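Reminder to self: keep the SMILES exactly as supplied, no canonicalising. Ligand is flavin-adenine dinucleotide.
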Amino acid sequence: MTTAGHLRRALLAVPAVPVLLLAELSPASGPAAPAGDPVYGEYLSTQCVTCHHSGASEGSIPPIVGLPPSAFVDALLSYKNGERENQVMRNVTSTLGLEEISALAAYFASLSPN
Amino acid sequence: MLPLSRRRFGLISGATLAGLAAPNVLRAQGKPRVVVLGGGAGGGTAARQIAKDSAGAIDVTLIEQNARYTTCFFSNLYLGGFRDFDSITHGYDKLASGYGIKVVNARAAAVDRDAKQVVMADGSKVPYDRLVVSPGIDLIWDSVPGYSEAASETMPHAWKAGPQTRLLKARLDAVENGQQIVMVAPPNPYRCPPGPYERASMMAHVLKAKGHTGAKVVILDPKPKFSKQGLFAEGWEKHYPGMVEWYGPDVHGGIKAVDPASGTVTTDLDTFKGALVNVIPAQRAGTIAAEAGLTDASGFCPIDPNSMRSKADESIFVVGDASIAGDMPKSAFSANSQAKVAAMAVRGDLTDSRVFPARYSNTCWSLIAPNDDVKVGAQYTASETKIASASSFVSQTGEPADLRQHNYTESLSWYESITADIFG
Ligand SMILES: Cc1cc2nc3c(=O)[nH]c(=O)nc-3n(C[C@H](O)[C@H](O)[C@H](O)COP(=O)(O)OP(=O)(O)OC[C@H]3O[C@@H](n4cnc5c(N)ncnc54)[C@H](O)[C@@H]3O)c2cc1C
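Structure tokens returned for the bound complex:
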């Protein structure tokens, strides 16, 4: 079974992963800098905001705008590898690769919550 | 960013691109024009997304016949008493003021594809470089013999939200203990596959809450099975024992006719009398799409799964219920998702913006009883022939109550987000 740690190590072994994303994955990393392709992330994000509201939320779906990339990547990976429960998010992340996750992280980090 | 600099940028890089990638439409005079026909789940999303992402580089006009839009989604929760009517009704002010969209509140009469313009009912013309068509469904009245638009005043369909929804609610609230509600469910394909069964649940909830447990809801279905069937059957048994009966064609033998005067539905098996009869007829793409020649023999519009571009006209995109969207159900979530793919493709056609592989998603929540909500969903990509499911999930029978309650609160968040995503 893959754990988030394993995935992250696997990630470190993939040369195509942008260097800044790797930095983001380490807890000791400095201030957030977008790593993935934010233009791709902007397109992908349109499918997220159908449920994730940018402002205060009446229900239980958390806002994701402005999340630091490391927290964002961690959250998506933990759904993807089954550590975290939620049928919708497990299903969504099952079709997202590393390129997509880093692109989304870069895009959402670039926005400020309103 | 200033529209001017944005446009210059588009023109310069567009000129370079023009030789490489057709069809790149760049108008020498003025901005490229996008017209969106239909201000519902698909059209509202497309207009807002194109206006927002092009930041002034594209001129966006939204044509919608009604000044306000009542969502079919959550209209069952209105029936059940969980929402008021105002909370499911939305206007177009924010799309106009916040995104610079020109909102035309009038009925479109036709699409003149040769002249690339929408002809309005008053004869005025709205020219376009790209047209996004999202007119939703029209009802095929005579798919149920005896039913008609006039009959819907007595036997409401409430499958287009608005006055019909209020009529159904008033009639539901008047049902007495011991009386019977009869629902005629629609054949496939129709908007919102779990919708009729969520509605039956909400009807039973209203009756039960008043202590009318001697009343019941009878569903006469032309289909042998339906969406989330096991989940609904379990929920009805648990919350409304003896109050909801579902008959498929192997039991009723076929729905022969409805009679608004006597309030009856005749099937091969029997004649069912209802204090309230809810008839949901068969459906097809909105009339304007058919008249524009965008539909095929199925009554819906074939599209390219990579872009939602009409197979009949490369300047036109069809999204939402009117489209043939492969494995995707006809839902507001789907319409919203498809509109985003179309918006990207439209911008790719008209400006120098990047185009990525299409991705679609859908989740449909259904409320069975207070805090007992189930869901089904999937992710989709474009295969060579259709929009194809890439992975999916569905709630399971026997799930713990806290999960079902969480689903309900999730659906509340979703409604808030998707309506902001459609209407600004
Ligand atoms: C009871 C019920 C419950 C539902 N629940 C859910 C749910 O929980 N979740 C979900 O995702 N979906 C749900 N749906 C489905 C959802 O409502 C539809 O799939 C969605 O509205 C489709 O969007 P659309 O843009 O294709 O059409 P619509 O939203 O119907 O919009 C079409 C618009 O075009 C306008 N129009 C049409 N022709 C013209 C013309 N000639 N000129 C000007 N304007 C025109 C119409 O006035 C309308 O506003 C439900 C549906 C029903 C009936």
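Points to follow up:
Residues 1-7, 9-34 of chain A have pLDDT under 50 and may be disordered.
Chain A touches chain B at residues 39-40, 42-44, 46-47, 49-54, 57-61, 87-88, 90-92, 94-95 (CB under 8 Å).
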